[in-house]
Amino acid sequence: MFENKKIFILGMARSGYEAAKLLSKYNNKILITDRKEQDENHVKELERAGVEIHICDDPIELLDDSFDFVVKNPGIKLDHPIVVKAEQLGIPVTNEVEVAYSFLPEGVKIIGITGSNGKTTTTTLIYEIMKLAGKDVHLGGNIGYPVCSLVEKCKENDILVLEISGHQLHDFINFKTDVSVMTNLTEVHTDHFGTYENYKYNKCLIFKGHTEKDVAILNLDNEDVLEGTKNIKSHKLMFSSSKDADLCIKEDAIYYLNERVVELKDIRLKGVHNYENIMCAIGAVKEFGVANESIINLLKSFTGVEHRIEFVRELNGREFYNDSKSTNVKSTQIALSAFKNPTIVLLGGLDRGLPFDDLTSFLGNTKEIVCYGETKNKIKDFAESVNKMCKVVDTLEEAVLQAYKDSNDGDVILLSPACASWDQYDNFEVRGNEFKQVVNNLK
């Protein structure tokens, strides 16, 4: 599919770089463009492979009907001029996951995880349990490892565990999974998809191509998940934290098909949202014959993923937590629910046009909001409307310093922005790492 072709790659970063590197080995003529200056070593490597690189603000004139494919970075909006022009010219638009899929060895099994929240924790749990069980498994996708970088590491019958975003699902052509996990659906990313209905439709594309031999792990407690998946052909496994289901909580343990798998007291991660993620993971790994022993041993030691309610340090009686991965209100609700101590929460980032009203009932333990970035004034207005103390600053560093100044012994200082990072950072990882650096430099 991607051999002896002319290919336009829109957006370099990690995924575009890895896609270009892989495609260059299959006699393709490749042009890659980005607005930002790129890693010098990556640029030189691709140039040696014959890739044409353009760093420019407006690459529209570079695209014509001689190209066979446009491979775009998933974060690029659907109405980008290059995407619109490609569609007008009849050029298929896809992404690096689809490119990688076309080169995978025969027999590779794919577990795909999507949903509005919990994707990264669930994906990591599945991978770590599989690895502990001795499976030949690889981790990639939206979790930060482009799938193109895994192709040459994969052998026949290996297992790929992939976090997959709605942005990626929109651009697939032939890609399909063997096991698909839908953690939940809530109204996010409408800035990218236009409407919540369009977002839900794209999320459910993770079941595209499924037959009754493929498995769908679904949230019985989420009406939007049930509605969106009612007509899929997959074999369904339902999970629930409140009802009897294929995967459920009863008698202080997690059950899988009426089998008692793990005691809640033996699980290091706490919170209902984490138990739901764990149920998803158990459902997925059981499809590959993983024994309970591996599941229990992993859950006894697993403390979570970086940037998701991640403990950073304790200083003068204050505890600092990095929840930079909370890029929407629902994720911040979960984070705020995790703490009983007085909390100062740091909110702010890219303005996606969504309100913050749904945080109101979760602010019971919040003593102060410190807001920064593009959404700071909107957050200030929200805080005033619910009678919460609010301080306004420009940057995340200033927010940390302000929060520390206003805190007392026993307080929690929580970065859980409820916004994407792209107003000031390349991604939420960079934002979270800066938070940790500032916190660790406090005296």
Features:
20 strands; nine-stranded mixed beta sheet; 15 helices; six-stranded mixed beta sheet; 443 residues; alpha/beta; single chain
Quick summary of this structure?
The chain has helices at 13-23, 40-48, 81-89, 96-103, 119-132, 166-169, 190-193, 196-203, 223-228, 272-286, 292-301, 329-337, 376-385, 396-406, 428-440; strands at 6-10, 29-34, 52-55, 69-72, 93-94, 109-114, 137-141, 159-163, 179-182, 215-219, 235-240, 247-250, 253-256, 259-263, 310-315, 318-322, 343-348, 366-372, 390-392, 412-415. It has 443 residues and is α/β, with parallel strands linked by helices. The strands form three sheets. Strands 7-8-6-9-10-11-12-13-14 form a nine-stranded mixed sheet. It has a six-stranded mixed sheet with strand order 15-16-20-17-18-19, sandwiched between helices. Strands 3-2-1-4-5 form a five-stranded parallel sheet.
Structure, described:
This protein is 32% helix and 22% strand. The protein is of the alpha/beta class and 443 residues long. The longest helix has 15 residues, at 272-286. Helix 1 (13-23) packs parallel to helix 4, helix 5 (119-132) packs across helix 10 and helix 14 packs across helix 15. A hairpin with a 2-residue loop joins strand 13 (253-256) and strand 14. The strands form 3 sheets. A 9-stranded mixed β-sheet has the order 7-8-6-9-10-11-12-13-14. A 6-stranded mixed β-sheet has the order 15-16-20-17-18-19, sandwiched between helices.
